[in-house]
Description:
Layout: H1 8-20, H2 26-34, H3 42-50, H4 55-59, E1 61-64, E2 67-70, H5 83-92, E3 100-104, H6 110-118, E4 123-127, H7 131-143, E5 150-153, E6 168-171, H8 186-189, H9 205-217, E7 223-227, H10 233-242, E8 246-252, E9 258-264
Parallel strand pairs: 3-4, 3-6, 4-5, 6-7
Antiparallel strand pairs: 1-2, 7-9, 8-9
Helix pairs in contact: 1-2, 1-3, 5-6
Amino acid sequence: MSGPRPSEDELSRAAAQLRDAGIDNPAREARLISEIDSAETFSGLIDKRASGVPYAHLAGRVGFYSVELVCDARALIPRADSEALIDVALSKLPVLEKVKLADLGTGTGCLLLAILTERPDASGIGVEASAAAAALARENVQQMGLSGRAEIAAMGWEAWDGWSEMDVIVSNPPYIPTDTIPSLQPEVRDHDPHTALDGGLDGLDAYRSLIPLGAGRMKPGAWLILEIGYDQAADVSALLTGSGFAEITTTQDLGGRDRVVSARWPGPVRA
């Protein structure tokens, strides 16, 4: 932060400005913004936050599960709801010397890197169609010192050919119905990449693409673990059933909303 730290009066005025802008927990956000190491003035950062710029973009970093990631407008900001997927994935990863996982549509790399941090015996790949997001994910791999166990492939999951090598495949695909996007909060609607949000007319386009690909290519006994919208469990489960997956289970996030659907591709688990 350029210049001296803001006074209590300045913090109070900043909190009031954020409150008027509809920001949740404005006093807490004002204090957090006052701690950002930035060349910009405190008032300038507050103005940006009041205009809808996400705190994570101002700070340039975001905490997720047990890791801290570089975060900017190149990829979707990791959110606490997605941490439920990490717990499910960790419970499904087999005890193997060379366990492998993939994160399809990796964005910042948050799912892949959080899992690898928890499982030092694992290696994995993040697959990302956006070249900009893939570059951001590579930055996170590098800054976390995981270059030896994680790689990022800048391609769509349709072109990726590693399905049969993975013990677990995770994904947080775009699942917001197109017509819903204009009604999202400004910090999401105006600052997260729309390609990471837009799931098509009913929000299910990515699942219709991803699930049949997995069914045709996954290793017998491997798990596919998908983040979903709170009202999509039945539809995604039906797609998995129709493609031949088994042991389909829905898991809730900390708010009690359906958030993760997991399924196993039938066959013996590798010894």
